[in-house]
Amino acid sequence: MAFFGDYRDFTGADAGKYFKRTLCRSDALMLGLNCLEPGQVQAAHAHDGADKFYFVVEGEGRFTVGGETREAGEGVVVWAPAGVSHGVESMGGRRLVLLVGIAPPPQP
Amino acid sequence: MAFFGDYRDFTGADAGKYFKRTLCRSDALMLGLNCLEPGQVQAAHAHDGADKFYFVVEGEGRFTVGGETREAGEGVVVWAPAGVSHGVESMGGRRLVLLVGIAPPPQP
């Protein structure tokens, strides 16, 4: 089904960990948001057989992909190939909002 | 291979049609940019067996997905499921920059 949506209508906060929301999902691709409040962390993890990207929509993060760590702000694309460990930590004083895609999507 | 890149380093113009750039590509997903100068059009087309999304990074566009047409500006996600016709026309006085993903990628 077609989808049109402003990402701002789907952001949020999860005090316990970080906030995740799926926007669209098919057998080939899951597209969603990750929102990290200041200081929140998405621990390094890997998806076997699935590639992942982040696109920084708001805020700043410290990303690690494989052995590489970089700070990135709005407008930066980060790509983690299948099987490569990746994670991110929110930096700065405001929420980090990431558009995230995983292809193919993780199984429920 | 990991990729970190600011989309602004990969934008451009193509006077003849519209500008396309691939940022990352795997067997599962192709991620890139489409840049449409004011008035440029990406004619309606469909990808058999591949889902596609647009994320509006700069500017404004009039998107058509299936029978639905909507105007969308920065921050809007547009999803066109496999086999559903989709296209976009650049509106307003400045370049429309779209982050685009296709899963799985078209064959060369």
Description:
2 copies of one chain form a homodimer. A 5-stranded antiparallel sheet of chain A has the order 2-3-10-5-8, with no helix packed on it. Chain A has a 4-stranded antiparallel sheet with strand order 4-9-6-7, with no helix packed on it. Chain A is globular. Chain A has one domain: Jelly Rolls. Chain A is mainly beta and 108 residues long. In chain A, 0% of the residues lie in helices and 56% in strands. The mean pLDDT of chain A is 96. Chain A has strands spanning 3-6, 19-25, 30-36, 41-45, 51-58, 60-65, 68-72, 76-80, 86-91, 96-103. The A-B interface holds A 1-8, 23-24, 26, 28-29, 31, 50-51, 53, 55, 57, 63, 65-66, 68, 70, 72, 75-82, 84, 99, 101, 103-104 and B 1-8, 23-24, 26, 28-29, 31, 50-51, 53, 55, 57, 63, 65-66, 68, 70, 72, 75-82, 84, 99, 101, 103-104. Strand 8 of chain A pairs antiparallel with strand 1 of chain B, so a sheet runs across the interface.
Would you summarize the structure shown here?
The structure is a homodimer of 108-residue chains. Chain A contains no helices and ten strands.
Characteristic terms for this protein:
4-stranded antiparallel β-sheet; 56% strand; homodimer; 108 residues; globular; mainly beta; Jelly Rolls
Summarize the topology.
The structure is a homodimer of 108-residue chains.
Chain A: E1 3-6, E2 19-25, E3 30-36, E4 41-45, E5 51-58, E6 60-65, E7 68-72, E8 76-80, E9 86-91, E10 96-103
